[in-house]
Amino acid sequence: MAHIHDHSGHDHGGGHVHGSTDQKRVLIAACLTAGFMVAEALGGLFTGSLALLADAGHMLADAIALGLAWYAFHLAGRPATGQLTYGFGRVKTLVAYTNGIAIFVIALWIVYEAWDRLLTPAPVLGGPMLVVAILGLLVNIGSFLVLHGGDRDNLNMRGAILHVLGDLLGSAAAIVAALVILATGWTPIDPILSVLVSLLILSTAWSLMRAAAHVLLEGVPPSLDRDLIAGDIQATVQGVREVHHMHIWSLDGSSSMATLHACLNEGVDAHQAVSAIKKRLASEHGISHATVEPEFGRCADDGDDHHHEHEHDAAAHHGHYH
C-alpha cells in the first residue's frame, strides 16, 4: 500500500503546477463569457438577430461549461478517498463528455430555430447587430487566447477551448450576417449562417464526446496497442514466458494504467521480473502505474470462473481500441 501511495503522490505533484494555471485560465474565460453573454442576448432581442441569439445561447452554455470545467480542475486536486480510491481525476473527463452533449443540444436548437426563421423571415437591425457582434468577437478572442496557452492534451481543457472556439465562430458569422443585411437588406443570411456555425460545432462536439467516452469506457489510449505491448514484454523481459489478462486504460486521458498476468519460467525471481516489467512499461510505453501478477505454471484465475474469465479476456482480445 505504501508503494501505491508514494507513486500516486509523485504523479499528482508532476501535473499540479500545470493544473492550477489551467484552472485560472478557465475561470478568467468563464467570467469573460458570462459577462458578455447577457449583453449579446439583449442585443439579439433588440435587433431581432437569430445569429446573435444563437451566439448568446452558445455563450450561456459555455459560461456554465467553463464554470463546470473550473470546478472539475478544483476537484481533481483533491486526494483519493477510501470510497474514491483513484481520486477525482476523471471528473474532468465526465465534464468534457457533458460539455459535448450540451453543445449538441444547443446546436440542434439553433438549426430548428433557423428553419422557422427561413419559413417566416423577421426584420433584423443590421447596424446595432454589427456593433454587438464585433464586441462579442473581441471578448471571444480574449477568452481563446487565455485558454490557448493551457494544456491541450487535457480533455477538460479541450472542451473549454472548443466552447470558446464555437463562440468565436458564432460572433464571426454574426458580423458577416450584419454586413450582408446592411449592404443588401437580405435577412435570410442571418439564420443560414447560424446553421452553418451549428453544423461545424456539431462535428467538433462529436469528436470531443468520442474521446471522453473512450476514457469513460476504459478503452486503451489511442497512442497505445495492448497486444504490441504484451508482445514487447514477452520479447524483452527475461524469464517471461507469456503475458495474458492484460488491460490498459487511462484515468483522465493523460495518465495510463495497466494490469496483467505474467507467466514466468521456473526458477525466475518473481520480484525481479515484476520490477523489470514495470520499468519497461514506464520507460517504453508511458504507463506510469501497473499491477503485475506473477504466475508459475497454472493461472490463478483458471478455477471455477475460468469459462467466464476466458470469455471476458477473449472479448477484450478481439475488441481492439484504436
From TrEMBL:
Compositionally biased residues, Basic and acidic residues: 297-316
Bilayer-spanning residue ranges: 26-46, 52-73, 94-112, 124-147, 159-186, 192-209
Family per similarity comment: Belongs to the cation diffusion facilitator (CDF) transporter (TC 2.A.4) family. SLC30A subfamily.
Gene Ontology MF terms in the entry: zinc ion transmembrane transporter activity
Topology term for the membrane: Multi-pass membrane protein
Cellular component terms per the entry's GO annotation: plasma membrane
A Pfam family this chain is assigned to: ZT_dimer
Domain (Cation efflux protein transmembrane): residue spans on this chain: 26-217
Positions of region (Disordered): 297-322
Organism annotation: Mesorhizobium australicum (strain HAMBI 3006 / LMG 24608 / WSM2073)
Compartmental location: Membrane
Domain Cation efflux protein cytoplasmic: 221-294
Protein name per Swiss-Prot or TrEMBL: Cation diffusion facilitator family transporter
UniProt keyword annotations, A-Z: Ion transport, Membrane, Transmembrane, Transmembrane helix, Transport, Zinc, Zinc transport
